[in-house]
Amino acid sequence: MSLSFREKLIHQEQLVGTIVTLPAPAVAELLSQIGFDWLFIDAEHAPLSPADVQTLLQAAKPTPCLVRIPELNGRAVKQVLDSGAAGIIAPMVNTAVSAAQIVQWAKYPPVGTRSVGIARAQGYGQRFQEYVANANDETAVVVQIEHIDAVHNIAAIVAVPGVDAIFLGPYDLSASLGKPGRVQDAEVTNAITHVEHICREVNMPMGIFGMRGEGLRPFIQRGYSLLTVGIDTVLL
User: Fold this and answer.
1) Handedness of CA 200, 202, 205, 206 (dihedral sign)
2) Cis ω on the peptide bond leading into residue 25 (within 30° of 0)?
3) What is the DSSP letter of 180?
4) How many CA atoms lie within 13 A of 210 on its CB side?
5) What is residue 107's three-state secondary structure?
6) What is the rounded distance in angstroms from the CA atom of residue 90 to the CA atom of residue 77?
7) Which residue from 210, 216, 226, 112 is spatially nearest to 164, judged by alpha carbons?
8) What torsion do the CA atoms of 201, 157, 211, 28 make, to the nearest 10 degrees?
9) pLDDT tens, position by position, 28-68
């Protein structure tokens, strides 16, 4: 039996994807066919509506997709999961309380508070029982560490049950330190090193974005397994 995307993530298999920002199904379809393990659909920075996200998920099938939600709220989580995402990426998660709330929104009772409905993920009702029975085990929850407050709270964040991986955001992290874009600054790299140390201590999977594969090699050597290379607008 094949592993779900979440199981591969937890086992720290190397998973290489790219970022999708364009509301163009053909682009997502093409990217899904060239060998990526997953796609990162960015509904935070790209002007993607919930309908756009669902269309991209349909086009990308069967490649698993994680959707970065536009903001931290239960409706956003519910909509992308009901549309068929393999999981969510939650931006700017700075505290354990926020991380725990994200997990609650992403999981059905009794684990969480996700509302039970009938949509694409449930096969429009045809796979309802199967989906609901397996969703909590198969839905990936990734939180972004991209603020110095999150760095200070990283030990508590990764201790939250249901957080499956962290995804580092060096650029927002540098901005939170008053040094936007200066990702090689010692204060920024020291913060990243601290996050890596805590994650390795508890065997928490780590992810990061790179524009080119060679730029990711140092991170792979340091234990990162959830990776994205490039972005659709640049690849085109």
Assistant:
1) negative
2) no
3) T
4) 17
5) coil
6) 9
7) 226
8) 120
9) 999 999 999 999 999 999 999 999 999 999 999 999 999 99
pLDDT tens track for 169-216: 999 999 999 999 999 999 999 999 999 999 999 999 999 999 888 889
The residue segments making up the domain with residue 117 are 5-235
The CB-side HSE value for 188 (13 A sphere, CA atoms) comes to: 19
CATH number at residue 186: 3.20.20.60
Token pair, residue 200, equals 């390795």
Return the sign of the alpha-carbon dihedral for residues 133, 110, 153, 78.
positive
**Is 70 exceeded by the pLDDT of residue 1?**
no
Catalogue the active-site residues: 45
Closest CA to 93 of 41, 19, 167, 42: 167
How many domains, in total, are found in the chain?
1
